[in-house]
Amino acid sequence: MTELEKLRKKIEEITIDMLSLLKKRNDIAQEIGKIKNQEGMSVSNESRENELRDVVKRKCEEINFDSNSAMKFLNFLLNESVKAQSSESNTHLAIFLKAKELEQQGKKIIHLEVGEPDFEPPTSVKQSLSEVYDKGFGNYGPAKGLPEFRKEIANFANQNFDAKVDFENIMVTPGARFGVFLSITTLLDPGDEIIVIEPAWPAYRQCAINSGIKVRTVKTKLENKWEPKSEEITSCINENTKMIVLNYPNNPTGKVLPKKLLDEIVEIAKKNDLFILSDEIYSNYSNDEWKSILTYNYQKSIITQSFSKSHSMTGYRIGYVVSSQEIINKLTKLQALCLTNVSEPIQYTAMKSLNDDVGDNVKTIYGRLAKLQEICKEMELEFVNPDGAMYIFARTKNPINTSELCEKLLEEGLAIAPGIGFGDYNEFFRISACQDIKTLNEGMDILKTKIKD
Ligand code: PMP
What is the torsion angle, in degrees rounded to the nearest 10, for the CA atoms of residue 44, residue 45, residue 51 and residue 57? Predict the structure, then answer.
């Protein structure tokens, strides 16, 4: 055997040993997952992960190994554990799918679990859909979107969000969800870390895990009005931290951060050279305190927006991203690869409705949220009055396991979202204000009786 062949053989043996160890580690992770499940514990545990980080750092010093590579490798292992222990059976989407199945079997279900407005899109949508054929919008087009649409979006952002952007800063996407996916997948590498402030819409975490990116969680509490502390954010930043996700008005809490706190978070991001992914899909359902991250003019920010909630166009699958030209160019490559371009007829339709007055939708949702708050107070539930969005995130005075509650409620004909889908919030549930007041009352009556049981 030559020297090269001998070395290759050694590498092969080490690789195989590592695989066996990985299998052993995953089996143990599964065992731990079972215990956590029995005890009602959450999958991720930041303090335990930090202990492991310290052990690994010390070992790196001892054996003189690059700690940055070691941390990335550790992040891969931690994500493997999270994958082995996670189940998606408790998200609002899972409840929605179960509810749909029951409906197929003839059961009547009141849907207070999804954030899908029940009102019609603006009537201009009907008009523009009928024009689109004759206008010839139906070809392959630029991956960033129709230039005239992008120009209109830039004007809209400058007027409504106090931004200073032009069409080069815009990319049209099939909904905000794809904008979030593109940003996380394109801008971060496996082993990098992303900060998510929980409770949070589950897709940030899921997109990160899907791309081998480690999620660092900052857990906020009802007692602190769902506000993160700047020190909590700073304390989980290290050399692998690349992005922080913001979502205000927040799904599920309805929180809008005070301006001073937002200023502090942006400062932290700038100081640590982090991307800010700001999902602003609920921006028009917000109080006066809200301001767009665009107002900071920070080059490493990415804003996702959508027609789903503002225009009640969920199924049209249309939204957009606002960012620096450099970032937009990076995201465009993956969008071109995945879907060539967003459907032209839908882009045309959204363009024609962009400036429509959707104020009535906002008033409708606010009216329903006010009603829900009234009922929740009567029921002595604990919650923070939402500053925006379309949800109430509440818990009972005596904590209950809401995953079990949601299953039981389905049998009674009510679907609500269990808190565990938004992070480690097993005693909370989310009720959405996307049904008329009569239906909301009916749903809340069912909830009242089940909570009493
Ligand atoms: N972001 C948040 C915070 C959401 O709640 C949702 C949908 N519920 C989305 C993004 C997805 O929006 P879209 O329909 O535009 O993909």
Answer: 30
